[in-house]
Specification:
Blueprint lengths: L5 E3 L2 E14 L38 H13 L7 E2 L2 E4 L9 E4 L9 E6 L5 H4 E13 L3 E3 L8 E3 L6 E7 L6 H18 L11 E10 L9 E6 L2 H20 L7 E6 L4 E7 L9 E2 L6 E2 L2 H9 L5 H10 L5 H8 L2 H17 L4 H22 L11 H12 L5 H14 L3 H7 L8 H14 L1 H8 L5 H12 L6 H12 L1
Parallel strand pairs: 12-13
Antiparallel strand pairs: 1-2, 2-10, 2-11, 3-16, 4-5, 4-15, 6-7, 7-10, 8-9, 11-12, 13-14
Length: 498
């Protein structure tokens, strides 16, 4: 049951949300030309004659772009249309040299599919929702207007003109900012697993048009607005929050929501009107006469499906069911493809160094990664991608704990040294003399000294205060500078105190 509502003077309002996500296809060339797509290049240095719409230039589809869009559709269980067609979307704007955009309105490459999102990773069974995807169509991007380069004129950068985009259109199935945020995060994860888009929202390679309307529960959909080019998950959620409240206040004051295009201002967290929303007929769509329909044969489709990696939901199930990784850990470890790759390299390296059951290794490795390495990296402001600790060196550290060479507490110190110096765990342990002491004689001597200094606590322990046992363990470990084998310490103290 959805609990997100906007409270108004006339009662509670429900929010209806749909997202149109534009994802830049990860290729070295544009959709219809061989021009480069590298981010950050000098303005107008990646523009072919096709992109600039010079007379007589004909577009030629980039096979890799079609391949990646098909693979993306397959990853969300969508219908793949073996026959599709390009259309011209006609409008005039200074950053659109052709005077039209090549898109796919009537016959998209990918049809209906879905995404399953989880709103609470600690309770996935009761918080999973399925969001429908209406379609994925392929289209070319426009250029970029630059208004801050001259006091009286705007400049045009056509580097993005013709860049291949997938427009991923959801159904209006989301009912809260949290659901929309989870949808964008899940979609980004899938795109990065597939490799069809890098998902970098800050650079504009993934951005969302946010459609929002409000209604009383059970009533027909209200009039929606579309907020363009929102480039972060947080901003998507802020857009929905602001726009829903704005529409409710407007309606309850006797006004009418106008179907329009709006812009989000990240500084104020508000939206503002940009222009009235055009309908399809305003763009005068018609089939592009320069492009034949796309016809995909069975071999192409079979190869595309066979090329897909293990996707995040399947990987998560495998971690939980086959490896015994706790559900929350599995969710975090599969949320980003880089983390999953790192974890699996750690598993392989750990299995090579420890003769233990795979499930035991997986639980140990996942718990260490979640509780120790992530925390340590966060403290020094680094991510797993630029961690000084590699999977191989992490596996060596875990192996030293597993065979009793060092204790768990010493392992924390060793990890800090690894992050500071980049040295291996073995090197640090030997250089700093951190090997765990399992010599019973040395531990017994330390325990005897602790017991002799705390006779009052010995009497209290023997009188029934069992919790004092931890005190003796701690004092003995302190006397051994943390290097004593905890199990040996426990055994020795049990013998002496009981």
């Amino acid at each position: 049951m959805n609990s997100y509502r906007i409270s108004g003077a006339t009662g509670d309002w429900e929010v209806v949300i749909g997202l149109e996500v534009h994802a830049q296809i990860r290729t070295a060339a544009k959709l219809f030309s061989s021009a480069a797509t590298e981010f950050g290049a000098e303005p107008n240095t990646q523009v072919s004659l096709v992109d600039a719409a010079m007379p007589g230039m004909l577009p030629v589809p980039n096979r890799e772009c079609i391949w990646q869009a098909v693979r993306t559709g397959m990853a969300i269980d969508a219908q793949i249309n073996a026959w599709s067609r390009f259309d011209r979307k006609n409008y005039f704007y200074a950053d659109l040299p052709q005077g039209y955009q090549i898109s796919q309105l009537f016959h998209p490459l990918v049809g209906a599919g879905h995404l399953d999102i989880v709103l609470d990773e600690k309770d996935p069974e009761n918080s999973t929702r399925r969001i429908g995807v209406e379609r994925i169509h392929v289209e070319q991007d426009a250029g970029k207007l630059m208004h801050d380069q001259h006091p009286t004129m705007s400049y045009v950068d056509l580097n993005r003109s013709g860049v291949a985009l997938m427009e991923i259109v959801s159904m209006p199935d989301m009912r809260s900012p949290a659901e929309a945020g989870a949808y964008v995060r899940k979609l980004r994860t899938i795109l990065r697993y597939v490799g069809s888009c890098d998902g970098n929202m800050e650079e504009g390679s993934m951005r969302a048009d946010v459609n929002v309307s409000v209604r009383k529960a059970g009533e027909p959909f209200g009039t929606r607005t579309e907020t363009k080019n929102v480039n972060s998950v947080r901003f998507v959620m802020q857009t929905i929050e602001h726009e829903a409240n704005r529409q409710v206040a407007l309606i309850e004051d006797g006004g009418t929501v106008v179907q329009e295009t709006r812009l989000f201002d990240p500084d104020s967290g508000t939206t503002r009107s940009m222009r009235s929303k055009e309908d399809a007929q305003d763009y005068r769509y018609f089939p592009d006469p320069d492009l034949l329909p796309l016809e995909l044969d069975e071999a192409f489709l079979a190869d595309a499906r066979a090329s897909l990696p293990e996707l995040p939901d399947a990987k998560r199930r495998r971690y939980e069911q086959e490896l015994g990784v706790p559900p929350y850990n599995a969710a975090v470890l599969t949320a980003e493809v880089e983390i999953a790759i790192w974890f699996e390299q750690l598993l392989q390296q750990t299995a090579d160094q420890q003769a233990k059951p795979q499930a035991e290794v997986a639980r140990q490795a996942s718990n260490w990664l979640m509780s120790e390495l992530f925390g340590a990296l966060n403290r020094i402001g680094r991510s797993l991608g630029d961690s000084p600790v590699s999977p191989a060196s992490a596996a060596q550290l875990l192996a030293l704990v597993g065979d009793g060479t060092i204790s768990g507490s010493i392992a924390k110190q060793v990890l800090e040294r690894m992050l500071e110096t980049g040295d291996s765990a073995g090197t640090i342990v030997e250089r700093e003399g951190l090997r765990q002491e399992s010599d019973t004689g040395a531990i017994e001597a330390a325990a005897d000294a602790v017991i002799a200094e705390n006779q009052d606590k010995v009497e209290a322990y023997r009188g029934g205060k069992d919790r004092l046992f931890g005190f003796f363990v701690g004092q003995t470990m302190k006397a051994m500078q943390g290097k004593a084998n905890p199990q040996v310490v426990n055994d020795v103290l049990k013998q002496k105190l009981d």
